[in-house]
Design goal:
Blueprint (H helix, E strand, L loop, with lengths): L2 H4 L1 H24 L14 H20 L9 H27 L5 H32 L2 E6 L3 H13 L4 E7 L9 H4 L2 E3 L4 H7 L4 E4 L7 H14 L2 E4 H8 L5 H9 L3 H25 L1 H14 L5 E7 L5 E7 L10 H4 L20 H8 L7 H7 L3 E3 L4 E2 H5 L15 E3 L12 H14 L2 H17 L5
Parallel strand pairs: 1-2, 1-4, 2-3, 4-5, 8-10
Antiparallel strand pairs: 6-7, 6-9
Length: about 475
């Protein structure tokens, strides 16, 4: 992920502020303060529009060149960023006022502009950090430290003191015995390198933090990297940071940039994704409420048992939650699962039967139209699921996982729809299903989510792949 995309969220915010200031300056220049009361009736000339657009572009260019979209951990670096931002903004604002007034701006106006922009910069950086910390705490990165020596201890100390709100250390992996480790590291020892694949079958890991001497442990490092590449886990060589890239004068900022790069932008995009989930799910629940009520009544009238079926599923970071569906099977469907295992038509750790005898007549209609999935909009509102993502898998299916690569699906929230649903659904084999989920995780963007949601409507209408 490049630096330009990392800053897109804050750049959009600052661009909006720049645009607001431009409009204010133009209005003020034409009609003084009285102009603000009739802002809706003001006419902006072509020159005004060109000048305003140029101002916004230059504003963001200056912020990007001065690295003012980066995050700053220490107070001195934070204050330096604030002052740079204020000075960056003061000059174009004063020029704007001077050009439209066609006279020099007095000292009092300059001081006023400086104070206003200083307050804006303080609020911008403080609010940005608060939002990022809040969201990061809800979406922590899970780190597995490869190594148990001095470098590993230093990395763990830095993480738990500075990044404890946005990261979680699963433990330490090393081929050394625990008797050769410091007591606090030995207490968090989770296994040898040979145990790594089995470890990944029970835990979702985001980062391998390799903290071992490069020369003496190179074969071990290569084994860890190979496994990481198979599973799709990001690798960070902490040895390189301390040996060649460490800057004592900027330890906090450097460590954050090198060890956890691009996480801020990812967190901001998660916030937007969550906002979209809440808004869309709320609207759909309101609009579809008459249909949902009719289905509840229909299920109750056509078969004995509750209208809803709740099943424990694995979600983000393997957290368990109760997934809600309209009941499309007989009430004792789960109890009859064992007797049908031999008739499973799917390949892999999933169960599929085209003519499952447990499905009720109404249930077949609900499944073919995907109406049985609509109660999961409540799961989306609760935060257990997202509108788009890999399908949440049952405890039974996950218990049959035999490859650590399958655990990667738990690095994101499960969804009501996804690439699997819009590319054939039940007609797609398990290996292709996994490939589609992996592709979604690797290529995820808000635009991709919108495309999948649009294609879902078409897939539902065509009833493609529904069983």
């Amino acid at each position: 992920m490049n630096r330009a995309s990392d800053h897109i969220g804050m750049a959009a915010l600052d661009g909006s502020v720049a645009l607001a200031l431009t409009i204010s300056a133009i209005t003020f220049s034409h009609h003084s303060f009285a102009g603000f009361t009739n802002l809706g009736s003001q006419r902006i000339s072509f020159i005004d529009a060109v000048f305003g657009l140029t101002f916004v572009v230059l504003w963001q260019y200056c912020f990007s060149v001065l690295n003012l979209y980066d995050r700053f951990a220490t107070l001195p670096s934070r204050m330096s960023a604030i002052l740079k931002g204020v000075l960056t903004m003061v000059t174009p604002v004063i020029i704007h006022l001077a050009v439209y007034h066609r006279q020099l701006v007095d000292t009092r106006t300059i001081l006023y502009v400086f104070v206003v922009l200083f307050g804006y910069e303080v609020d911008r950086i403080t609010l940005r950090d608060f939002v990022l910390d809040f969201i990061s705490a809800r979406n922590p990165q899970t780190i597995l430290i490869i190594g148990s020596g001095r470098r590993a201890a230093k990395a763990w100390r830095e993480i738990r003191t500075r990044y404890h709100s946005s990261t979680k250390v699963l433990g330490f992996v090393d081929d050394r015995g625990t008797d050769q480790m410091a007591p606090d590291i030995a207490a968090r020892y989770v296994g040898r390198l040979d145990d790594l694949r089995d470890l990944l079958l029970t835990h979702a890991v985001d980062i391998f933090l390799i903290a071992m001497p490069m020369q003496s442990t190179y074969p071990m490092m290569q084994r860890a990297v190979t496994i990481a590449e198979e599973v799709g886990i990001r690798v960070i060589y902490l040895n390189d940071i301390y040996a060649t890239k460490w800057r004592p004068e900027q330890p906090n900022r450097q460590l954050f940039q090198e060890v956890f790069p691009a996480h801020e932008h990812y967190v901001l995009r998660l916030a937007v994704k969550r906002l979209v989930d809440i808004v869309v799910a709320s609207i759909l629940l309101i609009v579809l409420s008459p249909l949902l009520l009719c289905v509840v009544v229909a299920v109750k009238l056509t078969s004995s048992g509750p209208a809803f079926f709740c099943q424990e599923r694995f979600g983000y970071k393997r957290r368990r939650f109760q997934m809600i569906k309209f009941r499309s099977m007989v009430q004792d469907a789960e109890a009859r699962m064992a007797e049908l295992e031999s008739r499973n038509e799917a390949v892999g750790p999933i169960f599929k039967m085209k003519l499952d005898p447990r499905v009720t007549p109404l249930g077949r209609i609900l499944r073919s139209t995907s109406i049985d999935e609509l109660p999961q909009l409540w799961n989306v509102l609760r935060g257990d699921m997202s509108l788009v993502g890999p399908r949440p898998m049952s405890l039974r299916d996950v218990s049959l996982f035999s490859e650590s690569t399958l655990m990667r699906r738990f690095s994101v929230k499960p969804g009501i729809t996804g690439l699997w649903q819009v590319n054939g659904r039940s007609s797609v084999g398990f290996d292709e299903w996994v490939a589609l989920d992996t592709r979604y995780i690797e290529d995820w963007s808000l635009l991709l989510d919108l495309k999948i949601m649009a294609r879902t409507v078409s897939a539902v209408l065509k009833r493609s792949g529904a069983v």
